[in-house]
TrEMBL record:
UniProt keyword Signal present: yes
Signal peptide location: 1-31
Record protein name field: L,D-transpeptidase
Lineage, highest ranks first: Bacteria, Pseudomonadati, Pseudomonadota, Alphaproteobacteria, Rhodobacterales
Organism per entry: Salipiger mangrovisoli
Domain annotation L,D-TPase catalytic: ranges: 88-225
Amino acid sequence: MTDFLRPGHLSRRLPLAALSLALAGLLSACASTATMPPNTPAAISDETRMMYAEVQDGDITIPAIEDKYLTEEKKRQVVDYYTSERPGTIIVDPAARWLYQVQENNKAMRYSVAVGAEGLAFSGNANIAVKREWPRWTPTANMIRRDPETYKPVASGLPGGLENPLGARALYLYKGGRDTLYRIHGTPSPWTVGHATSSGCIRMFNQDSLYLYDTTPKGTKVVVLPKDRSGEGTLTPAAVTEPTTDGSA
């Protein structure tokens, strides 16, 4: 995962046609093969369609997100959020499948994300030490040993592009100077966003990954909430501290 080729230097198709079949079976710390059902059709505003319209990113055209994978709730939006963390901090709530980018005045930009098993395995504090555009993806040695038939043909890695599991942008989380192997990244599989998946880190619509990448400097603090803290920040401090009463004696 550490190699990086800039978009202008990449071939946008896999070098071997046979690898397109292998891609369908890729499982990794930041790849997912889960086929999720589309959302129930609902009214999508023109504003939301514009947010997730086709994007020209250098020499790559990122496809628009189809209406069937969108809802007004899932779109990137500012919401009320109560935290003592400083503005700019990223808070990931894997169990709820939301990512919050803290703003001032008890607000946050909220993103819908997909979460795999690996995304639920890490919690705590980290920081964004590396940022990459159209990152290269490489299977780990453990993955190759576990499933050589799938991963050995791509042991040297896959260049960045529309078929790459890491999508258009990736933020790499480090802790104590060491790579956690935890990534926040785009995805070529928009139907997974908003769902729990069989594998993977934290992925979002490619359009959202562009926005998060551009507004997140290196060194940004990231807080990944454990399951027992899911929903933290969505209630006012008063709602958390005040006892509830049911009128009983």
